[in-house]
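input
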Amino acid sequence: MARIAGVNIPTNKRVEIALTYIHGIGRTKAKEICAKVGLPFERRVSQLTDAEVIHIREIVDADYRVEGDLRREVAMNIKRLMDLKSYRGLRHRAGLPVRGQRTHTNARTRKGKAKPIAGKKT
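output
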């Protein structure tokens, strides 16, 4: 099992797909990494040599912000918005959608389970 950026990536998947298990690496960045290392896209993680795994690990560590660093940066950005008391910060603090979605009927993922209002009969 290959361990890159503190994440055990699955061995039976293609390298391009397995790299997306790392927070901060999607399909596009995974393809870039495979191209930099010079791996064919159909190669599986179990077929990688130790040198290739080390090369991938070095590229990810040097060129990309992933896992803990990325999570910390995102959390700090949200905290900064909340400290500024900007509109977006207030929406984060209230647990409401931040990007202008309607909340009258939808936004259940962000607001949580619907709470019945006692005595409202119309």
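quick obs: The beta strands are 2-4, 7-9.
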